[in-house]
Amino acid sequence: DQLVADGGGSVQTGGSLTLACPLFGHTYSTYCMGWFRQAPGKEREGVATIDRYGNTKYGDFVKGRFTISLDNDKNTLYLQMNSLKPEDTAMYYCAASYLSDFSRHLDASTYTYWGQGTQVTVSS
Fold first, then answer.
1. In whole angstroms, what separates CA 121 from the centre of its chain?
2. Which among 93, 98, 96, 81 has a CA at the least distance from the CA of 36?
3. Which residues are within 8 A (CB) of 111 and not within 5 positions of it... i.e. 6 or more apart?
4. Beta strands 9-12 and 118-123: pairing type?
5. Cβ(78)–Cβ(71) under 8 Å?
6. CB burial of residue 69 (10 Å; 0-12, 13-18, 19+)
7. What is the pLDDT of residue 122?
8. 28: helix, strand or coil
9. 3-class state of residue 93 by DSSP
10. What is the pLDDT of residue 20?
């Protein structure tokens, strides 16, 4: 099933957004779930990942501003984003991977399933 990311929008600098991604059962077959983003003219980059054991990994640019979580009861992946900056403006995607190598969890090329993306725009 396709992943569907939701919760994007437009906020001012310093604002907050929470992205959500229902996983439609992918948590039972895949090892790791993550959020990625891509701004116009830039490569897709890893924002945050969480594996089936709850281990998390964040991109260096997050610097404690974002929190990834997985609600197993709702089978939904979340990304709480605080202190947003204009440079956080991008299309955000959720994804699921079979890869167990924690060192590569922020590598977008290792992800098998992708959502269609939700736009986050931060104005100054």
1. 15
2. 93
3. 34, 36, 95, 96, 97, 99
4. parallel
5. yes
6. middle
7. 98
8. helix
9. strand
10. 96
Residue 17's H or E segment, with its range, is strand 17-22
Task: Give the list of residues 6+ apart from residue 105 with CB closer than 8 angstroms, or none.
Answer: 32, 34, 46, 49, 51, 57, 97, 99
CA–CA distance, 18 with 12 (Å, rounded to integer): 14
Tell me the two tokens of residue 89. Answer: 């403006």
Confidence class of residue 3 from pLDDT cuts 50, 70 and 90? confident
pLDDT in tens, 65-124: 999 999 988 889 999 999 999 999 999 999 999 888 888 999 999 999 888 899 999 999
Tell me whether strands 66-71 and 76-81 are parallel, antiparallel or unpaired.
antiparallel
Rg for the chain (alpha carbons), in Å?
A: 13
Instruction: Tell me the percentage of the chain whose pLDDT exceeds 70.
Output: 95
Residue 108's SS3 state is: helix
